[in-house]
Amino acid sequence: xxxxxxxxxxxxxxxxxxxxxxxxxxxxxxxxxxxxxxxxxxxxxxxxxxxxxxxxxxxxxxxxxxxxxxxxxxxxxxxxxxxxxxxxxxxxxxxxxxxxxxxxxxxxxxxxxxxxxxxxxxxxxxxxxxxxxxxxxxxxxxxxxxxxxxxxxxxxxxxxxxxxxxxxxxxxxxxxxxxxxxxxxxxxxxxxxxxxxxxxxxxxxxxxxxxxxxxxxxxxxxxxxxxxxxxxxxxxxxxxxxxxxxxxxxxxxxxxxxxxxxxxxxxxxxxxxxxxxxxxxxxxxxxxxxxxxxxxxxxxxxxxxxxxxxxxxxxxxxxxxxxxxxxxxxxxxxxxxxxxxxxxxxxxxxxxxxxxxxxxxxxxxxxxxxxxxxxxxxxxxxxxxxxxxxxxxxxxxxxxxxxxxxxxxxxxxxxxxxxxxxxxxxxxxxxxxxxxxxxxxxxxxxxxxxxxxxxxxxxxxxxxxxxxxxxxxxxxxxxxxxxxxxxxxxxxxxxxxxxxxxxxxxxxxxxxxxxxxxxxxxxxxxxxxxxxxxxxxxxxxxxxxxxxxxxxxxxxxxxxxxxxxxxxxxxxxxx
Length: 575
Prior knowledge:
By secondary structure, the protein is mainly β. It folds into four domains: about 10-95, Immunoglobulins (Immunoglobulin-like); about 100-175, no CATH class; about 190-350, no CATH class; about 405-575, no CATH class. Helices cover about 5% and strands about 45% of the residues. The protein has three helices and 55 strands. It has a 16-stranded parallel sheet that branches. A hairpin with a 4-residue loop joins β54 and β55. The model is unreliable at about 1-5 (pLDDT under 50).
């Protein structure tokens, strides 16, 4: 069935605000919906492309601040729909003075030079060895064949030390021919026990090993420290060819100390793809990591987990601190993530888009996840431990190979899921490989969890809830959901505490679950694209339960207010 979308156009921009140093850059992205023409015209203070006074912006949304702070120091970046010029979205950019000294690196420079724009240094490593808090290192376009160790911290008073591509040019850190260490993880950029460091706008690529003892990474952060930013980098082709027992990472953050953590780590605006990670992940935070933010990244075409929030692996020397916590995973796009060709995962469909494996107090919201093995999973691989107090809300998950959302340990010898809340998500035709896992899967040791306000649109197998164990008597409070598939209500499939139920009414009657839920067509805009916004006549409109903004959030998937009208809608979008 194909439904023609309405013609009303909407535009959203990300991020909606930013602070940029004079001469610095900020990548913006615009999303245009309800039209085949998704192109935008970028403006700065209403001027297409901007100007030297307020800053310029490229056709791809890369804003470059002026070299001198303007007055006023705030400018407006706007994305205007080319399909409908009356529709736009804006962001505020605050431009600040560069506190420290600007230094420069160039492929034509020399490390015996003073590092000025006229006489630049040759290597990024020499720059790292030479700069002080508040300084900025601008790396000119070209390839740098080195593994860089960041050997000094910035400070709260003087400012961070920033390493970034020179505005309008692409600096590349290329690992071709470099041999990763076999004694510890080695990145093309390494940050150990440092604080106030910002890495911006690099292409980081081609770091490979055939040794299971070597662990290459694009960016490797470890030890303890605070206020580390990894922004707008392109990271690809980080590879272990010894995948059965080997490991590789795109971006890895390991809190290996205690009680001091890696605190305030921001991973935003990066694209991470083309990885062969073996038993490891594309992007992760592991061990003693607190107050982290993983936002607006695009992670795709890798052969293991997209984003992983990890605990209880012995990364921190003190078990009391050995888990990532108090973080947000927001606005990421994750697709084409599968382990079916990865021997490190036994060639199974078990790679998650987003995985919380022993983490706690994490919000996962407004992410787009499709064509992965498992959309979102919250569990623990370590017996006696759980993933706890995680909220997954306002996410879109479709066309997963195995299941849309999964909680609970994968067998009776591992950990589980406690006090996790899954609200206002839209799950659409997952389990494309017909594994029998369904749309929402509940496994071992799931306790005190909530599954409400979700649209669950199953494939033709019509398996909505797959609670295939009876390890816990009541693993989740399930209600106020909207279910639908090509099967009728009387033939839909539900599995609860290892007991199968043929038909939605039978499941409701026998379990007491979903007493306020419906089995009706949610009326998506299109099943082909898919466009999973709901129509004004959808039975999802005003049909949910408002659990408060701390639970359901303040914005829906599209960035609109989460509650409009008389009540909250079911699903990721608010009508």
